[in-house]
User: Fold this.
Amino acid sequence: MVLPVREFSAAGYRSLRRIHYPMSRLDVFVGANGVGKSNLYRGLELLQAAAAGTIGDQLAREGLDRAFWAGPTRSGPRRMTLAASFSDENRLEPAYRYEIEIGFPPGEPPVPFPLAPHVKAESLTYLGGRRPVRLMERDGRRVMARDEDGRPVDVDLDILDSETVLSRLEDPSRYPTLDLVRRTLLEWRFYHGLRTDADSPLRKPGVGVPAATLASDGSNLAAVFATLAEIREDTGPLDHMIDQAFPGAILNIAPTHRTTAFSMTFPEFPQRQFEAMELSDGTLRFLGLAGALMAYRLPAFIALNEPESSLHPDLMAPLAKMIVWAAARTQVWLVTHSERLAKAIEDTGAGAVRQVSKVQGATTIEGLTLLGTFRDEDE
Assistant:
């Protein structure tokens, strides 16, 4: 079991001065270069990194001093806050909220690891009752968590300032909700680096083991296709989408053995099978996206960052259909420069297309209020 995500919040991170966004099944963000669309995407990645225990490392590699909101702030130390709210499967209202606040290490220089992220606070809150209840709360290195009987107890946890309680407190029997939120975040998949160069994982044979979901780097693409063919024994939807993109083309999935592989046959050369190494960048990227969006089992949440890169404009309509197909089965978050792709999705009525811009250096989403509602919906 995993939890649908209902809200995403960020404050003090890069161009995200303060954003509180209500999630839907399919959220599409379109806007010019430099308005902060990728920062929205990256904020979600950092929440997953909090669950994986890598948020400190990732922010340090990004450059903690460069990751904070650079505009004017109230007096006091700089902080960034990231949060997500989740619901139970059959309700729309958020039931749980995970939040993390990060700043610089305290003290006057020199201090050990001066640019290492310092987790100032962290919490998991239950929102489904008459009043919010903290299930886990961290203040510095002090950690409180409610046990299986709902009693608040101080937890003796050996934790570094750059580590998260979410990743370190692994005891599903005593802290089941914390475990559920962690597993939900770890199931998310982010696709923004599907390389198509000569050494791309997409071009290489895969290991001969079933793959229910595409890896973030696409390294198991051949196994994803083989799983549809040999386990589900149904590649009909995938074949239809490929025919929509490349009329008359056929995806050939080799029988699995020690490795997995695929090739394409095109109507101009019906006797020739073009292996993955021979395919154009655009064709290979489309196949990678097909693997992400049409796999045997879709993850709890899929985020796509500029999937239109290297694709011909005529592929926007088939790509939009694949995204809508996936959104009927899971949640999808799409960041794109392509007005054509956004329009193709909007025309289906399946998702919310949001215009992103910058106002005085801060990323803004058209119509979004500070309370996390949209003006047109309020009206």
